[in-house]
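Lest this sound abstract, we think one record worth quoting, the chain in one-letter code, the fold tokenised, each line plainly labelled:

>
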Amino acid sequence: MCGIVGYIGENSSKEILLNGLAELEYRGYDSAGIAVLADDSIFHSKAVGKLANLRDKTKDFEVNGFSIGIGHTRWATHGNPTELNAHPHLGEFSYVVHNGIIENYKEIKDSLMSEGVKFLSQTDTEVIVHLFEKNYKEIKDEFEAFKKTLKSLKGAYAILLITKSQNNKIFFAKNGSPMIIGTNSNELFFASSDAPLLGLANEVVYLEDGEYGYALCDEINLFKDEEKVDIQKNPLVGDKISAQKGGFRFFMEKEIYEQSEVLSDCILGRAMDERVDFEELDENFFDDITHIKICACGTSYHSALATSYLFERVAKISTNVEIASEFRYKEPLLTKETLFIVISQSGETADTLEALKMAKKAGLKTLSICNVDNSSIVREADFSILARAGIEKGVASTKAFATQVMVLWMLALYIAEHKKVISKENLASELKAIKHIPKLCVVKDSLHQKIRRLSKRYLHGHGFFFIGRDIFFPLALEGALKLKEISYLHAEGYPAGEMKHGPIALADANLFTVALMPKSLHYEKTKSNVEELSARDATILAISPEEFDLADDFIKTTSCEHPMEEFFEMMVITQILALEISIRLGNDVDMPRNLAKSVTVE
């Protein structure tokens, strides 16, 4: 959540900051602001709501020649979404933007207030700028004052600070929240991710936790633990075209359609003719591993839960899945024979990152499945496998989920082969199914149009049940999550066999049931559960290759031999269903209310 941009150079800093913030809209936000320092004066503006509001407020501001600037999109944590609580926060002569949480802000704030400092906001961030100015008045050196400020802060942060007393520098720091510096021949940029830097910077510096420093347009001074750090620049790879909508109504829609392509990328060089190969892993990586623990949040948790069936069924290895936010506080028993896997689209998910750190501290071997190279989780884990989903701008994850499931499925086969618990014939069958998945995820226009027509019948009622068995239960959870995220309708996923253990009490004509009924796995059992709901007059939308007489609506899928083939095809259908219902309700599909793309605080 939240996004940071910064700029030093002679081009239009206002436009660079606003355009950079636009590239970070996918992270979720409720307010935005910028501050530009030119000569000895600072212009700043903040607005609640969409970035268009900030553009409108700054339309008459222009700066010519050299300037420095910082910008921020905020998702409220401390204090309501108001202009006063929006970033940048100001002191007497300085401004700051910050992602993360300052855990000891209350103590700092109380101390500063006792000395007469007046606060304008309810945020934890504002203490940073006031503490910096207090330190500067005592030390009379900007960088020393900044360092002293950082030493007082506890928590997670990415910070950019500008001050009138040094009108050509940006002071920066990173600890637990992402920060990247981009460079070209005569300009310098800061951002929370690569997206705002594409087309502007040639090279980037990925900051590590505990690093801080100051930058000029042609110079970066980087430090850690009072020691100067050598700058490691990496080429910036990517293009803005890939992050645009490409003719689709929403990024989410585009990303659903991209799943066939990114799944092909995901399996490339991994699903071979006779084996699975991960060049990221050492040959002896799974030696002495007798158990797998997977930790994740939200959609990533569902991908883990689905594939946990495969780890046990195919790889014959004991596996359990934990919600990261719960795992952190349960005092878990961790043994050295356990492989600890974490999954995150952004690689910055705070709860998952902290769970990873716990596992490493306990001496466990760790592996991350992530979509963003050089992210915090990738750098923290012993080994990492990239999902190769590309930029995902829709807050409600689609193609990241698809690639996570694919990576984990291939990993289950990789382990099975390593442990010699799968025959060549079964492995060949699995690989054949994997290579068929991209074709099954191609969205046919006839399918999309059918779902679009169906969607108008599912805009009311008192809720949705998504039901399935086995690997289709986690898919039911994910289908329900997609719907509730973007439509704001109540939806729950259940194991089909659990209906009669309580949830069926809700069944009536105004309860919509989306039934995942694969022919290749427990069809008759699932059918029986759906019949029970139909007998209670629930409205049934059946998704299956087999016609179902009791269904009020029916979406026919391909008849496949492998359950995972049916899994991926039904995944696409549930995603499009959520999309079309949300569009009919008039919602902003890409940026649903109260949600953020990258959850960097717990």
Q: What stands out?
A: The longest helix spans residues 563-584.
